[in-house]
Design brief:
The structure holds two protein chains of two kinds.
Chain A: E1 4-6, E2 9-10, H1 19-25, E3 43-48, H2 61-65, E4 68-70, E5 80-84, E6 91-103, E7 106-113, E8 124-130, E9 133-138, E10 148-154, H3 160-168, E11 174-181, E12 195-200, H4 204-216, E13 223-229, H5 238-247, E14 251-257, H6 268-275, E15 283-288, H7 290-302, E16 310-314
Parallel strand pairs in A: 1-5, 12-13, 12-15, 13-14, 15-16
Antiparallel strand pairs in A: 1-2, 3-4, 3-5, 6-7, 6-11, 7-10, 8-9, 8-11
Chain B: H1 4-8, H2 10-27, H3 40-54, H4 63-75, H5 80-96, H6 101-112, H7 115-118
Helix pairs in contact in B: 2-3, 2-5, 3-6, 5-6
Chain lengths: 319, 121
């Protein structure tokens, strides 16, 4: 394997040269600005090989574990295959195992994958139905417990992927996924640090994966999960999560439907801001629509939460 | 004598200061409006770059970058008073972290050195 591979192409890199310079010399339009490891705009991800630690200075523990690095600081000594940070990377063939209606307009997809596909709970993939039709979905499954990946899909009336899943998808059909992507995972967290998971709609999916991972890794401190939806029938894992909250002493579950007046219902962000008081010591995971995630991130930060403890994953609507 | 950046503690000092500093800026009624609707991760990366420059650390920032980056804000009314507010927030961050008065002055002077570029003059 060559010392540097970008997407599929072998890139010429000189001894002691940094990856960013080599990419630019090869006329690849790599995003960059400061060239001093500060602005982080030249963030890339190694899909094969391990970047030198010096190239991961200032990144989060999750990003380090997932092979992200700064191209301007990276002088590889062993072979590296890299892609830009936001790019999904390799495609994998999967087999549709089950399609089940959960609650409201949410469908659960279970897809069998081969051993080549490796991921961490809480990451997301691009699900590719056919050429030109791909959407991002988070993973609710756990690689050490499940033989499949699990996706929660909200069916949008008139949505192309929704139509495909509702009308054309059947068990046994083969599809592709690309990824995994995202760094909202259980990493760099102290088992004695409280965790707060907040999701709106199918933002619950990655949180389920992260919750399962935290339990499996022996997380001891309290874990509080908030699920916010518009209508009560959107609380699609209500019974399972209530049961889990009864069984596990350190787990609690708060459900909020916007259409139900407070205190039982209302705005989930308000519930989080009211109940979460020790924000400086808590590990936050915020997943779902942009408005909720942006608002909570800002408010929690202003209340004293360090930005490193505000992990988030914004679900952007398909354009 | 070692450089200002080394005396302050290098990249670790930037790490320690950036959360405190950006929180002060967002909570500062004089300048908060310029940060409305921005992506916090991207903004924190920019603040890290700014602090690295102000701490005398390695950076490749040019006057042109500074002008380009703040053009939109100047059009929204960014002026000397707002630059003063940022330098004030920066100084109080450093004092809170126990940095000595001489270093605080040096940092403020470096931050001040980009004033004209930021304001497009």
């Amino acid at each position: 394997m060559a010392l540097l591979t970008y997407r599929e192409a072998v890139i010429d890199i000189e001894a002691g040269e940094d990856v960013l310079s080599a990419l630019l010399r090869a006329e690849i339009d790599a995003r960059h600005s400061c060239r001093a490891g500060v602005c982080q705009s030249c963030l890339h991800r190694a899909v094969e090989g391990k970047p030198p630690p010096a190239a991961q200075e200032g990144l989060s523990d999750a990003q380090k574990a997932l092979g992200y690095f700064l191209a301007c600081l990276c002088r590889p000594e062993t072979p590296l295959a890299i892609v830009p940070a936001q790019e999904a990377g390799d495609r994998f063939e999967v087999n549709v195992q089950a399609i089940d209606r959960l609650g409201g307009d949410v469908v659960r997809l279970r897809l069998e994958h081969g051993p080549d596909f490796v991921y961490r709970p809480g990451q997301f993939v691009e699900l590719i139905a056919e050429d030109g039709l791909g959407r991002h979905y988070s993973l609710a499954s756990h690689p050490e417990e499940d033989s499949f990946v699990e996706l929660h899909v909200r069916l949008h009336p008139g949505g192309r992927m929704s139509g495909f899943i509702a009308e054309r998808l059947t068990p046994g059909r083969r599809m592709c996924i690309a990824g995994p992507l995202g760094s909202c995972i259980y990493e760099g967290i102290d088992p004695d640090q409280p965790m707060c998971l907040v999701g709106s709609g199918t933002g619950l999916a990655p949180l389920v994966g992260i919750l399962r991972d935290a339990c499996r890794r022996g997380h001891r401190a309290p874990i509080r999960l908030y699920h916010g939806v518009r209508e009560p029938h959107g609380l699609y894992l209500h019974d399972q999560l209530e049961t889990l909250a009864c069984e596990r002493e350190n787990f609690s579950y708060v459900a909020r439907a916007l259409s139900v007046p407070p205190p039982e219902g209302g705005d989930v962000a308000a519930a989080v801001l009211e109940r979460e008081t020790a924000v400086a010591d808590t590990a936050f995971f915020l997943c779902g629509g942009e408005r909720l995630v942006t608002r909570l991130k800002r408010e929690l930060y202003l209340k004293g939460a360090p930005l490193k403890q505000l992990r988030s994953d914004v679900f952007a609507p398909a354009s | 004598m070692s450089s200002l950046y080394d005396r302050l503690g290098g990249a670790k000092a930037v790490d320690a200061a950036v959360d405190l500093f950006y929180r002060k800026v967002l909570a500062d009624g004089r300048i908060a409006r310029f940060f409305e609707g921005v992506n916090m991760e991207e903004q924190i990366a920019k603040q890290r770059a700014f602090l690295t420059m102000a701490f005398g650390g390695p950076n490749n920032y040019t006057g042109k970058d500074m002008r380009e980056a703040h053009k939109r804000l100047v059009a929204k009314g960014l002026n000397d008073m707002h630059v003063d507010a940022v330098i004030e927030d920066l100084s109080s961050t450093l004092r809170q972290l126990g940095v000595g008065e001489n270093e605080v002055k040096e940092v403020a002077a470096l931050a001040n050195s980009v004033r004209n570029d930021v304001l497009g003059r």
